[in-house]
Structure prediction request, 324 residues.
Amino acid sequence: MILADKIIRLRKRNGWSQEELAAKMNVSRQAVSKWEAAQTTPDLEKILQLGRLFGVTTDYLLKDEMEEEAFTEETDLPVKRMTLSQADHFLKWRRSASIQIAIATFLCVIAVIPLLLLGAASGVSALSLSENVAGGIGLVSLFVFVAVAVLIFLHCGFQNAPYAFLDKEPFETEYGVTGMVRERQKEYRPVYVRSNLIATGICVLSPVPLLAGAFTENEFVIVILLTITLLLAGVGAGIFIVAGVRWASMQKLLKEGEYTPSEIRKSRVREAVSTAYWLSAAAIYLGWSFFTNAWETTWIVWPVAGVLFAGVMAVCRLFSDRQA
Prediction:
């Protein structure tokens, strides 16, 4: 009964009704009522949230005795609140950002295509294109594509800065936000499922043109088929990103899926591993390519890295789950 009495005491001290406390905790009024009647006990995440909300220590809440509130240093630091208009703006921005991020990713995937095509074209005598010229133009185009992609990523990062707290800090949603987001999530679900199915089909079929190149010895034709494979992979990745970013924006506001407090901590570990992994892959690709000048074969780094990435993430996920 002690925890229940403390919740009642703190709620009344702040002048909140059960409905108001429920809205701040993002739970139902019935849940608060059961806590105060000692019918159920809040889980650890909710107890931590209660401590932040009331400005008291978790020790005070968990001790089996009544005493004066042991206030924390966060007493005067209010939990951030997401209003209905802010939530609507956030969802609209992420819808726009999903397209921008997909375009930037597509540019990264196809950046090597001009280099591959020009390298193959330099081997065709009828085109009179020297290998040095082809390599120079190809490298310039590769860096231009990557530079544009990086600028888009940076732009999205700066634009998303006002909402960075959604991934880093506890927040509350005002009345009406949860209902609005759930309604949009329900409407978007069929599109999300369909987009993932289409993207999966494209990615699975993307190696088919490259496999077809095994039936010809014409190097230029093989490079064209490889180009088609990269284009398909880029389109598939873009569809995944558009659907995933929009779905994730709704899950963030609802604190569901990978955006519950415990999952956010795990995702930070996976994000750090993912970043280090792809930076290493890029370094290996560029180092191998520049030292050997075999740009027509070093592209194999990317499909191999893609296959190994799934295994690395599986191990990382297993490790983070055990640590949780």
Observations:
- The first strand starts at residue 80 and ends at 82.
- The CA atoms of residues 43 and 251 lie 21 Å apart.
- The radius of gyration is 26 Å.
